[in-house]
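Budget justification, computational time. The allocation requested in the original proposal was used primarily to generate structure tokens for proteins on the priority list. As evidence of use, we reproduce two of the resulting records. The first is shown immediately below.
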Amino acid sequence: MIGKLTGTLDFRGQDHVLIDVRGVGYIVYCSDRTLRMLPARGEVVALYTDLLVREDNLQLFGFATLLEKEWYRLLISVQGIGAKAAMAILGTLGPEATGRAIALGDWNAVKAAPGVGPKIAQRVVMELKDKAPVVMAMGASLGEALAQAGDDDAVIEAAAPAAKRSAPKAAPKAAPKANASAEAEALSALQNLGYSPSEAVGAVAQSASDAPDADTSTLIRAALKLLAPKG
């Protein structure tokens, strides 16, 4: 299984790129959002990948972060959601907003992705809503994994060390949004206070949606207000 590719960006298409890794070209399909984050042709690029195996074809799908890859794997586990639809959802919403939409049961946000109808969007929310807290809680640790990609034993590096030494300096990786870490920390804090995962993730998702740039303490205060008994 190829879990990561590091090489030179040789070609950029509408839905894919060609990455040259020591003379071998890998075609990697990416979401619109990921494509916009990639450097210019000829520069060094690194993508986390997932290999789709079919009887007559092998396809690599690329992701800027491990969080995006995790949501892709969850999305394709839903009946009726293939790789194309999963990439469309992630390209439209991004991994953080995908998690918030599912946690809040906002299937209309999922339906905004090209090629995703209302029935499929509702199924995505129904089947993944209980899994959203786990993935959102993973946000902080996945962000650290991205920053330490070279030390991640779970990722297979396709480029040899010699190629790395001779390659030009890589363009800086797009840093994960600070809010993703804040959401994970707020979620953990609320669960430590005794709230259930479903209660905590719903309140944090709503608070983050209302204030995308909020820090951890602000998210916790806003979530507690939402969770406070009414009346």
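The second record produced under the same allocation is shown here.
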Amino acid sequence: MVTPRERMVISTALLIRERGAHSTAISDVLEHSGAPRGSAYHYFPGGRTQLLCEAVDYAADFTADRMATATDSLGAVDVVFEGFRSQLLKTDYRAGCPVVAVAVEADNQPVLDRAAAAFARWTALIEQRLKTDGVPAERAEEIAMLAMASIEGALVVARTARDVRPLDLVHRQLRAIVAAAISLDDDHGRTSP
């Protein structure tokens, strides 16, 4: 069962992905979560900064948990793209990535640090999957960063254009890059360039 505190964190992440960090007030979170008025400062004595940090952590955990369900590198890439794609369509292009929203809008270091940690965590998960699939460490690091930047950039463009085609195009191209890296390492006994 989700506690009132957890509902507030989840509501913050959901509101940020649609409205951005600056446009999400604590009163909006209280209304969205159904939490009583005084609960915000009871559960989050650090105020809005603490709430934003925990919402970013929630989003980081949510995506990392989805990535963990994949059995290989291609699956990890697929699950992230598919998750963002389905949310775009389900919300009529209102839902972006809450971590991007915070990273772009945050005006305090603790929140920016949490966003940086979320991106680093996701990138490391993709990198580790690639290494497990036989891609050399340096190449895995490069592809993982390309994947993270491409995924987030494609999501922003798709949301802004109100069209999933940018996300689909980047997904196909990134999938081809990952498949080639795995194939070159596993099937041919040589490493990718």
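A brief technical remark on that second record: Residues 187-193 have pLDDT under 50 and may be disordered.
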